[in-house]
Design a protein that fits this description.
The chain is an all-alpha fold and 180 residues long. It has one domain. 69% of the residues lie in helices and 0% in strands. Helix 1 runs antiparallel to helix 4 and helix 3 packs antiparallel against helix 4. The chain is globular, with a radius of gyration of 17 Å. The chain starts with a helix and ends in a 23-residue tail after the last helix. 34% of the residues are buried.
Amino acid sequence: MNKKILFWEIGGIIFIIFVGSFMHFLFELSGYWAPIGAIAAVNESVWEHLKLGYFPLVIFALIQYNFIKKDAKNIALAKFAASLIIVGFIIVFFYTYVAILGEHLLLFDILSFIISIILAQLVSYKLLTIRHLGKTISIIALIGIITLGLLFVLFTYFPPHLPLFQDGITGEYGIVIHGL
């Protein structure tokens, strides 16, 4: 067990949960400033809520990198895997519980967010502490991280008209200003 990396991954859980929770309200707090929508949730769609895990994870990874780069391996892969776990777990959990219960529950959404981050950081820890898997995998993972981030930005401003991107309150897509 690498205590230094474990410390950072546990710190990441706390950071991502708090920063992600704050980012849920950041678009409204910014006065609905469209550029902040690139990283903050702009509506109540499942897609926009995925950004609340992804962007804090990436921000934390950039901070963490300077402190663990000598001790950790597979950093890009660990963070790409973590981002996919957050995205995948939240989507599967949300659509599964809604299909079973027939309704959306805020408590379950919050739990799925927290559980996804814990799982993501545990997998990240494992990948950071196993043998180095090679430069090619690191490059592919880095491309994956960047691609996912670009998709979040692109689909915020140009969302496909699919249920994943639909605001659960208004039925609209993309930037939605509630209460105005």
